[in-house]
Amino acid sequence: MGAMSWPSESELNVIRTKVAEMSGKDSKEVRIVVSPYRICPLGAHIDHQGGIVSAMTINKGILLGFVPSDDSQVLLQSGQFKGEVRFRVDEWLPRNTSSTKEECNWGNYARGALYALQKRGNHIKQGIVGFVCGTEGLDSSGLSSSAAVGVAYLLAFESANKLIISSAENIEYDRLIENEYLGLKNGILDQSAILLSSYGCLTCMNCKTKEHRLVRSPDLNGNHINGRKKQFSILLAFSGLKQALITNPGYNSRVAECREAARVLLQASGNEGLEPLLSNVEPEAYEEHKCKLDPNLAKRAEHYFSENKRVVKGVEAWARGNMEDFGKLISASGLSSIQNYESGCEPLIQLYEILVKAPGVYGARFSGAGFRGCCIAFVDADRALDAALFIWREYSKLQPKLASQIDDESMVHICDAGDCARII
Ligand code: GLA
Predict the structure, then answer these.
(1) Is the pLDDT reported for residue 137 higher than 80?
(2) Which one, of 423, 417, 422, 421, lies nearest residue 200 by Cα?
């Protein structure tokens, strides 16, 4: 089964050996958090407004090997970033104010996890010695690596301190890491997908009520079902652009525009007492008062209301196993991100347009917020290789410089769905 191909035993052994070296403990004592990346086929940019989103994890992500350190000291090394991170869990960590340069600050996610746990009254006494690494070539590309890392540290601290914490609480703790500690005004899509997903299902999350359900597709229960072959693979296509969301002002400014649109619509419909979130605006009130929005705000609101409808229809198509309809809605969502939400940039938009035309592709869109480098597609599993070749060839023609910065094998990854975050 696809979900089981990651992590491999050899990947796990490399991490066990590394942590054993760092801590002086036996490699059998090393625990490993497996924290997958997520994709969001439908429901982009609407989680922070309390919308309904759909998500699943893939069989790639973050691995964090650790042992409890026997005192309050935290010592971390990374497979991707240089240097060592050291701090103590019994010191109070005020909100992060340091520069956002990723290379120097990779330890902020661990500090943020401690901040969130402490802020919600958990008594953390035990530090960890740990080694964290992400799937090669996939960091900072829009696959929620920051939430996967945040969740990984939360689970490691909780395990080292024998705390039993529910997924709902961890969703909230990761929100604290991102919204408060790191200052990104994002919603709860990423960590919900990472903590709640289950192989074979689409996770459908109402970000206002926090209720979720796992929707099974009739055709995703293993590679063969009822004599039929596996229906789809997931393609990740990289543009060569990399930038962490917290270093890009685009994300938070779009969130502010959505809130302003909600404020105008709530005021126009006599509901100014409600929090300015688009989920607090009834669709009828939106239709009646949208003419009062200035053009940019009108586009943001149009994205929100049309995306909510696409999610509902898409989940129905998924449950029927109708990948064609599901895919068309994904591509329509991608178009709305470009035209209404106005995220993305030229190379990413070109990549999206190539993916939509690639052989066997059901549907495609930017991954995540669309402010950095990756697009995703659902593709007929039998045609995934042809599609990957087509994408590589066409993108190299349009963006030779960016394409030349990516290894040929890393430009398009063919993945499968994954499972939720866990400790092994
Ligand atoms: C990022 C954010 C999420 C969500 C997506 C866009 O991944 O972290 O909260 O808003 O972008 O859908």
Answers:
(1) no
(2) 417
Ligand 1: lining residues by beta carbon, under 6 Å: 40, 44-45, 47-48, 144, 186-187, 189-190, 368-369
Q: Report whether 147 contacts 194 (CB < 8 A).
A: yes
* Helix (H) or strand (E) run with residue 388 in it: helix 384-398
What is the residue extent of each domain of the chain?
9-216
Q: Could you read off the pLDDT of 182-205 as tens digits, one per residue?
A: 989 999 999 999 999 999 899 999
Best substitution site from 45, 58, 365 to test ligand 1's pocket, by max atoms within 8 Å of Cβ?
Answer: 45
Task: Please report the beta strands in 18-154, taking only residues with DSSP state E, as ranges in sequence order.
Answer: 31-39, 52-68, 73-78, 84-88, 128-134
Whole-angstrom distance, CA of residue 312 vs CA of residue 334 = 16
Label residue 305 exposed, middle or buried (CB < 10 Å: 0-12, 13-18, 19+): middle
Distances, alpha carbon 312 to alpha carbons 100, 186, 199, 207, 364, in Å: 37, 22, 21, 14, 18
Cβ atoms of 23 and 128 within 8 Å: the answer is no
Atom of ligand 1 nearest to the CA of 146: 8
- Does the domain at 9-216 match CATH 3.30.230.10? Answer given as yes
How far apart, in Å, are the Cα atoms of 359 and each of 349, 382, 399, 413, 415?
Answer: 18, 10, 20, 15, 17
Half-sphere exposure of 74 (CA within 13 A, CB side): 27
Residues 6+ apart with CB under 8 A from 154: 113, 116, 117, 165, 170, 173, 174, 177
Give the DSSP H/E element, type plus range, for residue 361: strand 361-366
Tokens at 132, concatenated: 């964290």
Contact 212, 203 (CB under 8 A): yes
Tokens representing residue 352 in the block: 């999206």
What is the value of pTM for the model shown? Answer: 0.93
Q: Which two tokens stand for residue 156?
A: 């490691």
